Request: fold
Amino acid sequence: MKNRMLLAAALLLSTPLLAVEDPAPALAEIINFRQYSDSFSSAGQPTLEQFQVIAEQGFERIVYIAFTNNPNALADEDLVVKGLGMEYMQVPVDFSNPLPDDFYAFADSMRRNTGKKTLLHCQVNARATAFSFLYRVIYEDVPVAEAKEDMNTVWQPNAVWRDFIFEVMAQNDKDPNCDSCDWTTPPPRTQ
Reply:
């Protein structure tokens, strides 16, 4: 019996822990869907049909942090989400100029109802993973290295977003650095 317990402990300790959980197969089809816990996920823009799946999977709140005039946006997303019985909140975040107040509007909503199963999304899950990184580190005490690794599965923030993240972290007395954190910005895209 003792050997089995030791073997089980060794297996648990040798298995790498993944912060991003495996989502239900139907949710995995949503662009860049990431599930951080039973009650918090982020993604790119879901389709009309995918919002039905999201509701069926028990999500209670949708937070959209992009502009409705984006070519990929669902024009009547608010009506669709409310029609499916979920809460809807929008914080229009300018990709080229994210503001700390944008993040705090989202965070305040999350903090009022911490148990609500929430999907945070934008167009491709870049803005949303940055906000998720901040929320998880500041309010859920997720280690910076773990949250950064999760964000990097979607993107490596550019200089604007890196500086935004650093500003919000400083406002909350958090250090964005860790041994495995690489905050080097990617080279600019060429046309």
